[in-house]
Structure formats: C-alpha cells, structure tokens
C-alpha cells in the first residue's frame, strides 16, 4: 500500500475513535446527572422532565383562593444564586442579592418562584426541593400556614355594627345597677350598720324597750334571773348595734379583741374572722346555756353578725376586765399568799361550776372547757378570776349519756394538753375524760400562779409550763416526748417547802397532773380544799 494511502486510513481511524469516545463520555455524563421529575405541564414527555438540578413541588393560593400545586424541574442554569438556589432555602434569611431576573430564571414562567418570599410559615406560597431519587417530588406536599380568620363585618350594616357594640354595654350597665340596688335593699332590710370606732354616738339601732335607762348589769340581772341563759336575741342585737369600738386589746387565731363602749360602760368585743364562724357560733351557743352564768365564768352580753356590705364580722360581746388575762397579769404583777389562794380558788370554783350537772327543768348540762390556760382566764377588779373562751367546750347530755363534741377531738393548746390527749388514749365517749383533762391543765395554771407568789421578798419570774423543756411553739410530738415518754412535770422551786400556802398549792398541783387520769382530783374537790385552807387562815388571823 502506498504511504499516502496508509496515512489517510490512520487519520480516519483516529477520528472515528475520538468521536466514539466523545459520544460515550457524553452518554455517561448524561446517565450520571440526569434526574427524572414529575412535571405537570410536560404532556409531550408523559408528564416527565429531566434535569441536572432539583425536582420541586410548590403550593400556592390561586386568584380564586384555592390551593394549587406545581411539579417541575429546576436546572442548574436556573439556580439563583448559582452556589445555592434561593427557591430551595426554606429558612428565612436576611441576605440580599441584587441582580437581573433573566427569562431563563423565571420558573415557572407564569408565576416566577423568585418573586415570592420563601418562608415555611408563608400563608400564600411555599415550595420544597429534592434530588434523592427519580420522581421524588411526587411525595412532596408543602403546606401553607393557615391565616387567622378575621371577623367579617362586611355583611352587616353600620346600624347593625353599632347595635352589636351598644347592646352588651347596656346589658352590663343594667346588671351593675341591679347588683347595686340588691345590696342596697339588703343593707336596709338586714340593718347594715357600720360600727363607729372613735367616740361618735350610734343612732342607727333603735332601743329595745328593755334597754331604756338601765345599766348592763341591771339589765342582765333583770332578764336572766331564774334562767341564766343570756339576754333575748333582739336585745342582744340592739346592744351590738350601739357599741362603739375604742381600741384593740388583743389578737389571736380567731381574730381580734376590742374594748368597746355602750352608753358609757366598757365592754369587750371579740371579733371573729368569717372563716371562724363555727367557733363563734359554738361559743355563743355555750355561753347561752341555761344556768351557766356565774361570778367565775366570763359574763356574756350579746352575739351578733354585722354585715358591712363587703364581708361579715362575727361579734361576741362580754364583760370587760381591765387587768386582762391571767397570763398578762402574772407577767406584770406578783401576789402574796392570800392573793394566790384567792385566785386559785376562784378558778377552781368556776371550773367546778362548768363541770357540774344541775338537774331539773332549769338545769345545766355538765360542760368541759378543753382549752383551759392562763390566756383564757380573765382577772377581775377584785383580783378573782373568770374563765372565758368557751369556743372548744363540750357538753354532756345526761339523758343519753352522750358527749356533744366536734368531730376533731385533738384541740386546744398543745402545751396544756393532758398525757392521754397527747398520746390519743383518751376515751372520747366518756365525758369524765374531758373533765380530767381540764384538771390537768388547772394544775399547770396553779404552777404559773405559785411562781409569782412573793414570800419574804422572794419570787420567781413568770414562765409558761415546760418553758425549759420545749420551744415557744411546741409540736404535738415534742410535748408527747416530754409529758408521756419522759413523764416530766414543771420544776418545783425549793422555797415552796418553807411556806404552808405554797405547800398546799404544790400538793394540789401534783394531784392534778397525775399521769393516770383517774387518779386526779375533781374540780369540786380542789375547790373545797382551797376553801377550807382559806377559812383556816382567816381563823388564825
């Protein structure tokens, strides 16, 4: 073969190999990069498009308000910006790009994606891209955020809108006026009267005929002789409505105690908070027990509920004693032996009267105090005492041999609780159990009085029982440990052995606070012992 012909054949062969290589490389490139996507406007290619970029699905609101979807391809040449297509960047961004929007970038041509804010919370347009597999956009369904529906007033006339605004306002006004007149009427019918606190005479409550020109003491004697059950309710209300509150003299868990004035006479007004209504009712009920009135029981005058329009005050009105409670008196004063015996005898006499069951048509049931302590005993002007605060008292029904007692039997002041109350071994169905618990507390009160007895210029400072064994506000567990487990009782000063009156008091104390409740003295026995000692001392003089 001639050399020229051979060179031509070699050239043709090389060109053919080059063309084949280019063709197969092109096919290989297309095979790797081509991604098939669903295309809703590619009818001629069986609703399929191929791309070297992404498949996408867009959801948007049409002009008619309906939700529509688009399925398309997004070629790399249409990426904007080229490094990361904005269409597929669903998170809001603060970056801004300023460029021209060529026709080739308007995808789709009739509603370009670049002209919409891409935000997953968009309520008008949203899209999602994918490239993980062919036709992956079939499974995409981006959802529009629901717009809150604003109230539509377009269907109402101006007059209707005004009426809808005015009628509720007028209705509220009518309700307010109705409530006002309701309370005003109630105020008139119920005799609502604001109590006066600073010396102004109250003229709101008309006098009951029995009140004209009489003192409290005379009126009580006149209306309670033969019954001892307290004043008639109408008289009680008339008195309560005419009382002026002067100054507060005490506070407790129940409320406040005020010094009040009624026609120039001092009275004590115990004001219970509304949540203590049961205590108020119980104490008023006990005080009005037939034949209860006694010189050594705090004198009851009246009970009333006073409604000031906002809340109800529960008043309990009793005799006023300027020396205050025995607790306060002992903290400020000392006693001689005569004064000590006088006080102790008066308390024992009052307790014996409470415990006594008087038979007959005008009889009195036996009553146990259940919260006897120095703070609940008042010191009278003659330095005798009167037992008060009967809100926790229980009564004995002799005909049925039952005890009228609230559901909770653990009441009173923990420091003065008897051992059987602390360890819950007391028989609450047996009335004598409550009387014995009162006697235990009486022994502790005698100890408080005896400490303040001044003999030869020597006396002890005032202290509460068990002051050296428990904290100021002991728990049930602390008192149980001291009284029941350790069986401690208040310490006895040695000096008491050198005085006959103190020896008598000491003997009574020990017989009051026996651990075995049945071994304790009765209140009547204590009264007789002290009375006999006083008589013997008077004879010596």
Main traits of this protein?
541 residues; alpha+beta; CD59; Phosphorylase Kinase, domain 1; Transferase(Phosphotransferase), domain 1; 3 domains; five-stranded antiparallel sheet; three-stranded antiparallel sheet; 12 helices; 15 strands; elongated
Overview of the molecule:
The structure is a single chain. By secondary structure, the protein is an alpha+beta fold. The protein has 3 domains: 36-139, CD59; 186-320, 2-Layer Sandwich (Phosphorylase Kinase, domain 1); 324-541, Transferase(Phosphotransferase), domain 1 (Orthogonal Bundle), CATH 1.10.510. It has 12 helices and 15 strands. It has helices spanning 3-33, 158-190, 216-224, 233-240, 277-287, 326-332, 337-355, 419-422, 431-451, 476-485, 500-512, 523-540, and strands at 35-38, 48-51, 54-61, 67-74, 125-130, 244-251, 255-262, 265-272, 300-307, 312-319, 367-368, 377-379, 385-387, 394-397, 402-404. The strands form 5 sheets. A 5-stranded antiparallel β-sheet has the order 6-7-8-10-9. A 3-stranded antiparallel β-sheet has the order 4-3-5, with no helix packed on it. A hairpin with a 4-residue loop joins strand 9 and strand 10 (312-319). Helix 7 runs antiparallel to helix 9, helix 7 (337-355) runs antiparallel to helix 12 and helix 9 packs antiparallel against helix 11. The model is unreliable at 27-31, 91-96, 187-206 and 223-227 (pLDDT under 50).
């Amino acid at each position: 073969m001639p050399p020229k012909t051979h060179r031509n054949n070699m050239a043709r062969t090389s060109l053919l190999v080059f063309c084949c290589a280019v063709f197969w490389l092109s096919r290989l490139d297309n095979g790797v990069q081509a991604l098939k996507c669903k295309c809703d406007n590619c009818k001629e290619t069986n609703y399929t498009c191929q791309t070297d970029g992404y498949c996408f699905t867009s959801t948007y609101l049409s002009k008619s308000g309906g939700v529509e979807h688009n399925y398309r391809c997004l070629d790399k040449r249409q990426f904007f910006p080229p490094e990361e297509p904005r269409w597929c960047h669903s998170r809001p961004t603060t970056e801004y790009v300023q460029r021209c929007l060529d026709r080739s970038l308007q995808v789709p041509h009739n509603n370009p994606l670049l002209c919409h804010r891409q935000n997953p919370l968009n309520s008008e347009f949203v899209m999602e891209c994918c490239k993980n597999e062919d036709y992956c956009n079939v499974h995409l369904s981006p959802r529009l955020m629901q717009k809150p529906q604003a109230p539509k007033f377009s269907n109402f006339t101006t007059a209707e809108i005004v009426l809808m605004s005015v009628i509720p306002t007028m209705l509220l006004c009518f309700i307010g006026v109705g409530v006002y007149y309701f309370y005003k009427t109630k105020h008139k019918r119920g005799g609502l009267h604001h109590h006066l606190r600073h010396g102004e005479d109250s003229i709101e409550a008309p006098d009951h005929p029995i009140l004209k020109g009489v003192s409290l003491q005379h009126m009580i004697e006149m209306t309670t002789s033969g019954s001892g059950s307290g004043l008639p309710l109408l008289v009680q209300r008339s008195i309560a409505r005419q009382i002026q509150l002067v100054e507060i003299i005490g506070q407790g868990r129940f409320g406040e105690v005020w010094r009040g004035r009624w026609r120039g006479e001092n009275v004590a007004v115990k004001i219970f908070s509304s949540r203590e209504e049961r205590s108020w009712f119980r104490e008023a009920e006990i005080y009005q027990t037939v034949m209860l009135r006694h010189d050594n029981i705090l004198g009851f005058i009246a009970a009333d509920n006073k409604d000031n329009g906002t809340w109800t005050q529960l008043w309990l009105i009793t005799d006023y004693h300027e020396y205050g409670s025995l607790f306060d008196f002992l903290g400020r004063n000392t006693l001689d032996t005569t004064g000590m015996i006088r006080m102790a005898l008066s308390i024992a006499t009052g307790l014996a009267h409470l415990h006594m069951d008087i038979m007959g048509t005008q009889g009195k049931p036996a009553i146990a105090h259940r919260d006897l302590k120095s703070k609940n005993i008042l010191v009278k002007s003659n330095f005798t005492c009167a037992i008060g605060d009967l809100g926790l008292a229980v009564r004995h029904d002799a005909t049925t041999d039952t005890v009228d007692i609230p559901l909770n039997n653990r009441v009173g002041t923990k420091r003065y609780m008897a051992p059987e109350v602390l360890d819950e071994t007391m028989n609450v169905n047996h009335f004598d159990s409550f009387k014995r618990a009162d006697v235990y507390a009486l022994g502790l009160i005698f100890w408080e009085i005896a400490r303040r007895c001044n003999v030869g210029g020597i006396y002890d400072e005032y202290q509460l029982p068990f002051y050296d064994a428990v904290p100021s506000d002991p728990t049930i567990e602390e008192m149980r440990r001291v009284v029941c487990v350790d069986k401690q009782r208040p310490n006895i000063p040695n000096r008491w052995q050198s005085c006959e009156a103190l020896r008598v008091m000491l003997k009574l104390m020990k017989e009051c606070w026996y651990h075995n409740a049945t071994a304790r003295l009765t209140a009547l026995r204590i009264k007789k012992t002290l009375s006999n000692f006083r008589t013997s001392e008077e004879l010596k003089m």
